[in-house]
Design goal:
- The protein is of the alpha+beta class.
- 31% of the residues lie in helices and 34% in strands.
- The longest helix has 23 residues, at 5-27.
Length: 110
């Protein structure tokens, strides 16, 4: 049984790409509330929702819902019933306070 040496390099290349993406996510994962939008970033994945469109912010524990470091995820729903699922924030109190200030129309339950 002969093994092609090129096959080993292909597997190593794929594993290397996965490691790069995971390191990127480890280094660059955060939530940001700007004047106009709630932005979440998980490595190369960036999602945003306008503050005026937010209708509800709650927790969810769906493990297949989105990329995240934890099972506890934040669910942000907009006026069209679309939602963003992201990891739970480190400082939920600070996020709750700022969202309640800027999103008076929303139900903030975090």
């Amino acid at each position: 049984m002969a093994v092609d040496p090129a096959e080993g390099w292909i597997g190593l290349f794929i594993i290397g790409l996965i490691e790069i993406v995971m390191l990127w996510a480890l280094i660059q994962s955060y939530h940001e509330v700007t004047e106009q939008a709630f932005i979440t970033r998980f490595g190369p994945i960036k999602k945003a929702i306008l503050l005026r469109d937010i209708r509800e912010v709650t927790y969810t524990y769906n493990p297949i819902a989105s990329p995240s470091w934890t099972f506890k995820r934040l669910k942000v729903t907009d006026k069209d019933h679309r939602h963003i699922l992201t990891s739970a924030p480190k400082d939920a109190d600070a996020l709750r306070t700022i969202l309640k200030e800027r999103c008076k129309q929303a139900n903030i339950d975090v």
